[in-house]
């Protein structure tokens, strides 16, 4: 494999750097091709500035996720565990793309069920290859298998959906994911191993995507991209051995996208409308109620997550 050949010629850090460069260039070139199978956004009637998205390419996540998988196969030491994760990542992306390309948006329950099934498959794979020992701050303990399984499924499902909900402002989702992924890579390099290098490759892919997605954007990742990114964040959170760190290292994503999920759940299942004065996702609230521009949202939310990541290191 290419990885073994390169490792005989360069250091591991150099191989990772070469992989990042290849990831960026490949993604930049393939996104420029603007494939005919990519759907066009119809605009979102109830979203702030939603009409501005009309006519843009949507679902380009299918392009950059496939690019990421190809580069990962070439530049990472392959194991059965990693191959399964890449396959599950592809399925998560594919479910999002099929929703993006559908004339009628998929039912929320259908998407939720797909997320649940793939989350269960991921946890089965993870716990067959890893222990249930986790760390929380200075404490280390074992979580019973059934409890870890349930919590892991919940983590993956939540990460997929809050990340998906945050993708509503040009450049926002990708920028926050870059900060979160790099935080895990920098803080837990030994625990993550090759998955940490995979995180670096993904960041390079997202940098190429941001070239086209910065405001005013010419293309959108769609569910194909955002759902896959959420899945990857959950995966590295568990693989780091510090799964609870997700709460702080992804806090802006959780607040931005998660409050909307809570609001909908309270209204739909409990008939409680206690968040009626809060527009969700939060990026819509700050644009509509506080008058923030799209650029201000992206920069300020990204700064907040950087500060939270630094705070995590200090704790």
Explain what this protein looks like in three dimensions:
The protein is mainly alpha-helical and 315 residues long. The protein has one domain (2-314). 69% of the residues lie in helices and 3% in strands. The protein has helices at residues 2-7, 12-32, 61-75, 80-101, 108-129, 145-165, 172-187, 189-192, 194-213, 222-239, 246-249, 251-270, 282-288, 294-314, and strands at residues 133-136, 139-142. It has a two-stranded antiparallel ribbon. Strand 1 and strand 2 (139-142) form a beta hairpin. Helix 3 (61-75) packs antiparallel against helix 9 (194-213), helix 5 packs across helix 6 (145-165) and helix 7 (172-187) runs parallel beside helix 14 (294-314). It is globular. The mean pLDDT is 93.
Shape: globular
Report the biggest beta sheet as strand number plus sense, adding barrel if it closes. Answer: 2 strands, antiparallel
Helical content stands at 55-70%
Query: Ends: how far apart?
Result: 41 Å
Order of helices and strands: HHHHHEEHHHHHHHHH
* Uncertain residue segments: none
> Domains counted in the coordinates: how many?
1
- The radius of gyration is 19 Å
Number of strands: 2
**Secondary structure tally, helices:** 14
């Amino acid at each position: 494999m290419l990885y073994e050949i390169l490792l005989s010629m360069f250091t591991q850090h150099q191989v990772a750097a070469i992989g990042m460069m290849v990831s960026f260039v490949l993604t930049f070139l393939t996104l420029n091709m603007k494939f005919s199978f990519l759907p066009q956004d119809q605009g979102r009637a109830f979203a702030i500035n939603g009409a501005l998205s009309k006519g843009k390419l949507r679902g380009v996540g299918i392009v950059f996720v496939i690019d990421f998988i190809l580069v990962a196969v070439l530049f990472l030491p392959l194991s059965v565990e990693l191959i399964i994760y890449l396959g599950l990542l592809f399925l998560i992306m594919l479910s999002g793309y099929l929703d993006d390309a559908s004339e009628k948006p998929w039912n929320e329950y259908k998407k939720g069920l797909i997320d649940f099934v793939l989350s269960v498959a991921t946890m089965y794979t993870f716990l067959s290859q890893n222990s249930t020992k986790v760390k929380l701050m200075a404490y280390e303990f074992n979580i019973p298998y059934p409890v870890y399984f349930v919590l892991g499924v919940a983590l993956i499902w939540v990460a997929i959906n809050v990340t998906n909900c945050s993708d509503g402002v040009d450049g926002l989702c990708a920028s926050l994911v870059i900060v979160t992924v790099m935080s895990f890579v920098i803080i837990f390099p030994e625990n993550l191993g090759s998955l940490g290098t995979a995180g670096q490759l993904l960041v390079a892919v997202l940098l190429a995507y941001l070239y086209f997605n910065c405001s005013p954007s010419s293309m959108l990742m769609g569910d194909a991209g955002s759902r896959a990114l959420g899945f990857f964040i959950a995966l590295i959170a568990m693989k780091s051995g510090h799964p609870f760190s997700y709460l702080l290292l992804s806090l802006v994503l959780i607040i931005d996208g998660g409050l909307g999920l809570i609001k909908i759940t309270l209204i739909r299942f409990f008939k409680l409308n206690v968040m009626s004065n809060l527009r969700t996702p939060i990026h819509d609230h700050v644009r509509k109620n506080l008058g923030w521009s799209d650029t201000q949202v992206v920069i300020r939310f990204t700064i907040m997550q950087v500060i939270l990541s630094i705070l995590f290191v200090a704790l």
